[in-house]
Amino acid sequence: MKKQRRKFIKDTALLAGASLIPLHYSFNNESFNYIKAPFEDLDTLCVNDWWNRKDNPIINLKVERTNIIAFGIYTLSNNILKLSAQSYPLYPNESRFISFQIKTNNKWKEVSKQKINEIGWSTLFRFPNWNSKIDQEYRLVHENGSVFNGKIRKDPIDKNIIKLAAFSCNSNKDRGDRNNYIKNVTHQDPDILFFGGDQSYDHKQHTAAWLKFGLQFKELFRNRPCITIPDDHDIGQGNLWGEGGKKALRRQGDDGGYYYHHEYVKMVERCQTSHLPDPFDPTPIEQGINVYYTSLKYGEIDFAIIEDRKFKSGPKEKIPNQGPRPDHILNTEYSPDDIDLDGLKLLGDRQLHFLKKWSNKSKKKTMKVLLSATSFCGAAHLHGRKTNRLHADLDSNGWPQKGRNKALKIIKKANAVHIGGDQHLASIVHHGTNNFEDGPFQFIVPALVNNYYSRWWWPENEKPGELANNKLPWTGRYLDGFNNKITMHAYANPDSPSNGAGYGMVLFDKEKNNVTFQCWPRFEDVSKKDAKQFKGWPFVVDLN
What we know:
Elements lengths: L1 H17 L50 E9 L2 E8 L9 E8 L2 E9 L6 E6 L8 E6 L5 E6 L8 E7 L11 H10 L3 E4 L10 H16 L4 E3 L33 H12 L20 E5 L2 E5 L22 E2 L18 H12 L7 E5 L10 E2 L8 E2 L7 H13 L3 E4 L5 E7 L8 E4 L10 E2 L19 E4 L5 E8 L9 E8 L4 E8 L17 E4 L2
Parallel strand pairs: 8-9, 9-10, 12-14, 14-17, 17-19
Antiparallel strand pairs: 1-2, 2-5, 3-4, 3-6, 6-7, 8-23, 11-12, 13-16, 15-20, 18-19, 18-22, 21-22, 23-24, 24-25
């Protein structure tokens, strides 16, 4: 009797779930199978019997079945095309395969078919020996009629100026569309895109949030290459000190490592980075977590893509506390040397080795740029609200200082500039290591949405530094809270237009060997002749 009762309950539950599925799909006990997620209480909207979940505030997951291919996202480097196809969650008896097709002689030809991974609902296409000399129409096709169309642009090696659009911090405080960004960036027509992290702020629901991100921005990257890297919020933490992949015991993560299940972290990185060029050294770290640091060459620009947080030491119980939190320093009288201890890591030995190789001069003169999530200094004073002044924030790459200086010296040797995000505060800094201005320039782009934990550059003495440029009140030479030497050239506080929200546009002029940083407010109309950037921009860096 007990066995019969259990079977009745199970069958009833299956029928109840099946009743939520479109009528043209039928189920029986044999077909009602799914791959069980290797983690619990994570990504619950999109794993296991996902169709039994109630509607959610992030995105509608029960789309028309002719729309189940959400988007494709790709990079092209050294004649290797890598494209990740992202689908909405599939019902149990829907095909798990997506076809990649190209258009030749006005006919569509299938060149590959790949199986979707049900943990994250993505799959990867990789094509060596891609013809990068031509524009190529492509489409992704599912057997139920869903189609996503796009174009693989040719490698623009013949262009003198290469344009990179850079974004960061897509806060869920605004779940609306991003049409103003689509309109502006489409008008400016960059060659390549970079999303520097925090594409998702829904810590435990990455797949739904990643689908939302794709819905918001796919019109930009369906027709051009796009670099995406996850940051702390993407993998479910407010801050991240990855410490080589160890397991964090605290939700804050300040003891070092990853708090959530390693398979969840791997899923996030797979969805966001599998389309990047193959990693420089693919050896996994602790817990089997993979790495993605790599280089990408496009338009004769050599991009190094690194992972700021993955190898970085956590501060808790490794350095003396200087505030109520291990990562916040309030004591202005502390000695920065007390926290710059031997053995602490920033980028880690593996990534430093990669950067040293990358920094070597190419046979052909090639401009170089480093892409990462965050800043190599503490270029903010007020955090979250104007009354919350921090002397130093160990979430930034300003700490540990020895690791910061090692990285900056390699970037300078490469004659590269650095582009990052994360800070919710746009800025341009000229770094110093031994002396002021002996390091590279850094452009931290603004948050896409800046109504969550905004930051301000606001020196306590409210005085300009030495060699101020007079464009803004507080520019010039300063020491940050770690005693790092920085020269501030521009900043966009939340009292700027669009609350300081917006994006960066970076122009690499190969003939003049200079880089122009542009910074556009979110609600500016760049198609107008009188369109204005944030005060302090544009800014030109001469690399000669």
